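Study this:
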Amino acid sequence: MASGPQRRRVTIFLISVLIPAVVLIGLAIQLYRQQQKLIEQELEKHAGPAHTAAEIHSVYRESNLRFAFYGCAVFLALSVTLFCRYVVWQDYRRETELADLRSQFVAHVSHELRTPLTSIQMFAETLALGRVADPEKQREYLETIARESERLARLVDQVLAFSKIEQGRMDYRLQALPLVPIVEAAVQAVGPSLAQQGFAFRRDYCGCAPMVRADADALEQAILNLLTNAMKYSSDSRDIELRLHQSDGEAIVEVLDQGVGVPEELRERIFEKFFRAPASAQTMAAGSVPGVGLGLTVVAHVAAAHGGRVEVRNNEPKGSVFSLILPIDQKL
C-alpha cells in the first residue's frame, strides 16, 4: 500500500499532466473552429457583396483577442505544471534526505549500543574468569560495568521516548513540582560521567526555587540531554556550567559550555530528528562525537509539551548556551 506522501506525489503529478492536456486540447479545438470560421468568411467575401473595412477589422480583432486569451491559458497551464513538478521534487528531496538520516541513525545507534556492550562484556568476562584478584581493581571493574549499563539504559530510554513522540503516544503527567529537585536529579545522573571525563562542573541556582507544572521524568530527561550534549561538543574544553533563574514568570534552565558552538544557520535544524551538525561545523571528525541525533529533538518536544521552549545562543568567549524555558506555575 502506498504511503501518504507517495499518494500525494502521484496526485500532484497527475494534476500536472491533466491540466495542460485539457487546456491544450481545448485550445486546439477552438483554434480549429476559428480557422474554419475564417475560411467561411473568406469564401463569403469572394462570393457575396464586398464587406466594409470596419467589418473586416472587427473579424481580425476578435481573432487576435481569442489568440491572446488562449495564449494566457497556455502560460497558466505551463506555470501550474512547473509549480506542481517543483512541489513533487521538493517532496522527493525531503524524503530522500530523511531516508539518508534514518540510515545514519541506524548506524549511530548500532555503534552507540555496541560500545557499552563491549565494555560490559569485556569486564564481566574478566571478573568471571577470576583474572583480577585485587579487590580495588574488582571494584573499579564493577563501577565501569555499572556506569556503562547506565549509559546503555539512557540510550534505550532516548530511543523509546523518541518512538513514542513519533507515534503520538507520549503521555505527560503534569503536576505542580519544585524545579530544583528535578534539576538535581539530572545532575546526579550525569555526575559520574562528568567526573570520569574530567569536567569542571558548576551549578548556580541564583537562590530561586520556582514551581512548575511538569512531568518529572520527562523534564529530568530533557535536562540530562542538554548536559550530555554539552559534554559531547565541549571538544578539548572541560568546563560546563548549569544555571537556574527566573524572569517574567518563566523559569530558565541554562547549560553553558566552552565547546565548538553552533553556527547560526544550524540553530533550528539541530532540533530536527536524526540531524547531527556536519563535521565542518563542529571542527572535529563526525565519528568522534557520540550520539544518535535524538537528544535535542526530545528536549524540544518536552519543552513544547510543558508550554515552554528551548533556545540556543553563543557563549562567551566560545561555545553555546542552551536554555530550557518553562512557565512558572502562578497558582501556587
Summary: Residues 267 and 312 are 7 Å apart (CA to CA).
